[in-house]
Amino acid sequence: MVEAKYFIEEIINADLESGKVKKVFTRFPPEPNGYLHIGHAKSLCINFGIKSKYKGKCNLRFDDTNPSKEDTEYVESIKRDIKWLGFKWDKLLFASDYFDVMFECAVKLIKKGLAYVSDETAEEIRQRRGTLTEPGIESPNRNRSVEENLKLFYEMRDGVYPDGSKVLRAKIDMASPNLNMRDPVIYRVLHATHHNTGDKWCIYPMYDFAHPIEDAHEGITHSICTLEFEDHRPLYDWVVRECEFPNPLPQQIEFARLNITNTIMSKRYLKKLVDEGKVLGWDDPRMPTLSGLRRRGIPPEALRDFCERIGVSKANSEVEESYLHACVRDNLNRSANRVMAVFDPLKVVLTNYDGSEELTVEDNPNAEELTYRSVPFSREIYIDRSDFALVPPPKYYRLKPDGYVRLKGAYIIHCDEAVCDDCGEVVELHCSVVPNSKSGEDSSGVKVKGVIQWVDAKTCVDVTVRKLQSLLTDVVDGVTDFNERFNENSLLEVTAKVERSLLKAKKEDRFQFMRVGYYVLDKDSKGRKLVFNEIVGLKDSFNTTK
To answer: Do 60 and 101 contact (CB within 8 A), yes or no?
Structure first.
C-alpha cells in the first residue's frame, strides 16, 4: 500500500485495502464557460496525481449541461491548458454524451414515484423551499400521478412548453434539514442550441442530477470536488442510489479550494474583465488563468510544485501570493538563462579601448550542463543609471568617480570622468579599461567587489518590457468588492536595452535579466520588435521550507 500524504489518499488506501474498489478512477469535470484558472490547477494536480500514484485512470469530462453559457472556444482552451500543465487524460468525454442516459434515469425516478413535473416558477419554488429552521411547503403538483408526470415530461422533451414553464423535481423531503434535499429541480426547459448536441434537446439536466450519473456511468470510484459541494453530497448519493447504478457506487470527497491573496478566483468576474476590455484577453499575463500564467512565463513544473507544497486539506485558508512566486523563482533559478538588460541606460565611453570583440559569457551557472553565448563588446556601452553614484553612500560597491567595477563577463573599468549637463545631471561616463582584467583571464591584480550588467551600444536591441502587478489592490478599510479593488496600474510598459542574443529567442523562452528579474518573450513580438513580460522579481521574501 502506498503511503498516504493527506486525507483523500487515506480514504483511497482504506477502500483498496478493504476491497471496496479494485482500481482507482477519478475525473476532472470543468464547465466550458470560461478559461481554467490557478484554482483549477489544484484540482488537476489532485485528480491526475492520484491517477499517477495509484496507477489508475482519470477522465477529462466537460460539464456542458448549460448551453447558454458554453462554447467550443472554452473546450479547446481547457484541453490546451491541461496538456500544458503536463497531464494526460484517459478519455475525453462530455456530460452531453449522457443526455439519453440522464433522460432514462429521470423516467425511472418518475416511474418509482420519486420525481414529478412542476408548473411553479423559479421564484415560487424558492419561496416554498423554507429556511434552515422552517420546513418547506410542498408543491401543489407534488402528488401528480406517475402517468401524468410521464406524459408531461415527454411533452417537455418534445418542445411543447416554453422556457421556464415547467421543471422536473426530485420527490425527496420538503422537511429535510438539508435544503438541497427539498425536492430539488433536476430538469428544466431550455430552448438553446448546444455546442455538442445541436438542437436535439430542449430540456437539460441540472448539475446536481447530471454529475452523479456521469460518475456512476463511467465507473468513477472517487469523485473529488471542492467544499462548496459538501452539502450537495446527500443528493449525489440519493441520485446514484435511486437510479439503481451497480456497486461500487462513486464516493464524493470534498477538499478546500485554493485561495491566493490578491488573486481573482471568480470565473464570472474574470469573464467580466475580458468582456469589458479591462485586460488583453483571457491570456493576459496578469490574469490568473492557466493561459495567462503560461503567457506570463510561469513554468508548469513550478505550478505543480506549488500545488504539491500547499497540500490538501478540509479547512479553507488563503495562501500568500509570494509563496507561488518563491516556487517559480526556485524553478527559474535552475532553468532560465541569464542575459543582460539595462532599463535606465547611461552611456559609458571606454577611452582606452578602440577595438571590438566577441566575449564568451556563461548562460546559467546553475544549469546541469553549462552552455555559453557570444556577447559583443566595443568602445561604447550602456550601464544602468542606478549602478553609478556621483556622491556614493558608504560601502557602495558599484561605479563611482575614481572607482572600479567589473563588467559582467568582460573587464574591470575605472571611472575617469562623469560628464554632466547644465542641470548637474550625469549624461555620460568616461572610463578606462584596466589592462589584463578580462574575465577568466584576469592577471591585473585589481580587486573589486562590484559586478554590474551592461550592453554593447552598437549592437544592443531596444525592447518593450511589461511590468506586471496584481489585478487587485490590497483590501483597505474592509473593501473587498472586486470592482472597487481593480488595479488600474497593474500593467506598465517600459523600454529596455538588451543584448543582441535575445533576437534569437523564441516565444515563451524565459530569461533572467541579470540583477533585475525573470522575463518571458511574449507572443506580441514581431521581428526585432520584442516584447517581454515580467514573470517574477529576484527578491524572495518567502521561505518555502516553512
So the answer is: no
Judge whether 118 and 125 are in contact, CB under 8 Å.
yes
Q: Can you tell me the distance from the alpha carbon of 460 to that of 380, in angstroms, rounded to the nearest whole number? A: 11
pLDDT digits (tens, 9 = 90+) for 213-242: 999 999 999 999 999 999 999 999 999 999
CB 195 within 8 A of CB 75: yes
Contacts of 521 (CB under 8 A, 6+ apart): 502, 505, 506, 507, 508, 509, 511, 530, 531, 532
Active-site residue set? 31, 257, 267
What span, in angstroms and rounded, lies between the C-alpha atoms of 328 and 536? 8
Q: CA 260, 272, 296 angle in degrees (round to 5)? A: 50
What whole-number distance in Å separates Cα of residue 42 and Cα of residue 61? 17
Render 145-203 in DSSP notation, one character per residue.
Answer: -HHHHHHHHHHHHTT-S-TTS-EEEE---TT-SSGGGSS-EEEEE----BTTTBTS-SE
User: Do residues 67 and 195 lie in contact, with contact meaning Cβ atoms separated by under 8 Å?
Assistant: yes
pTM value surpassing 0.85: yes
Q: Residues 448-461: pLDDT tens digits?
A: 999 999 999 999 99
| Local structure of residue 454 (DSSP, 8 states) | -
**CA 258/CA 288 separation, integer angstroms:** 12
| Count of C-beta atoms within a 10 Å radius of residue 101 | 16
Residue 77's φ and ψ, nearest 5 degrees, are -65, -40
- For residue 26, give the C-alpha cell: 477519478
Q: Which runs of consecutive H residues, i.e. helices, occur in 284-401? A: 290-296, 300-310, 321-335
